[in-house]
């Protein structure tokens, strides 16, 4: 009895060590990819194209794609929403500035960009792996799912945009006023008329 327990215990640490080493290596590369958002999203786009080609090629797994679409829509709502919703938390209202005289407060997302990207990519990879198992290929009439998803998307985005307009926040840097840059201050100090 003692010998069989020791054999199982001795085989477990190498597997645990391998998983621990893999986890550290994965986290290392994940940390190194953090500042390279454009390249991360290009990689995710490639994965999405591969997924679409796979589902088009096998002509199935529409329910998996529908579930993926609902999950990605949920992630998008978290990405576009502020960390503290002024509608749900009136004790801190107004968190977002509503008048020009209010103090500037930066937009803090409920779901940061990196976590949004990571969850988005992970969901695509899981859905891609699911397309290799026939148990997930439930026969459905896909045009109804597609129409229902578009209706859900439009209604959800309309509600989110109305929320943005009501509380006057823009979750992107596009169209926001830019203040002095380092280039202009360095150029003005370097050109003296001595």
UniProtKB/TrEMBL annotation:
TM spans (from-to): 38-57, 63-84, 140-157
Membrane topology according to the record: Multi-pass membrane protein
UniProt keyword annotations, A-Z: Membrane, Transmembrane, Transmembrane helix
Any one of the GO CC terms: Golgi membrane
Keyword Cell cycle: no
Entries under Pfam families matching the protein: Rer1
Keyword presence, Transmembrane: yes
Major localization class: membrane
Endpoints of the signal sequence: none
InterPro entries in the cross-refs: Rer1
Subcellular location(s) per record: Membrane
Biological process (GO), any one: protein retention in ER lumen
Described function: Involved in the retrieval of endoplasmic reticulum membrane proteins from the early Golgi compartment.
Record family assignment: Belongs to the RER1 family.
Stated name of the protein: Protein RER1
């Amino acid at each position: 009895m003692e010998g069989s327990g020791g054999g199982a215990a001795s085989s477990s640490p190498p597997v645990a060590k391998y998983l621990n080493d893999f986890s550290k290596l994965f986290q290392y590369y994940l940390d190194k990819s953090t500042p390279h958002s454009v390249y991360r999203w290009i990689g995710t786009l490639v994965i999405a194209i591969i997924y679409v080609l796979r589902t088009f090629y096998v002509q199935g797994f529409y329910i998996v794609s529908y579930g993926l679409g609902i999950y990605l829509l949920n992630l998008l709502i978290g990405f576009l929403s502020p960390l503290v919703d002024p509608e749900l938390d009136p004790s801190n209202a107004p968190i977002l500035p509503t008048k020009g005289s209010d103090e500037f407060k930066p937009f803090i997302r409920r779901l940061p960009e990196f976590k949004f990207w990571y969850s988005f990519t992970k969901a695509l990879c899981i859905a891609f792996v699911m397309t290799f198992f026939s148990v997930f290929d439930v026969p459905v009439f896909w045009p109804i799912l597609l129409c229902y998803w578009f209706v859900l998307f439009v209604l959800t985005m309309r509600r989110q945009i109305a929320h943005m307009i009501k509380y006057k926040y823009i979750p992107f840097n596009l169209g926001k006023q830019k203040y002095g840059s380092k280039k202009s201050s360095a150029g003005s100090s370097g050109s003296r008329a001595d």
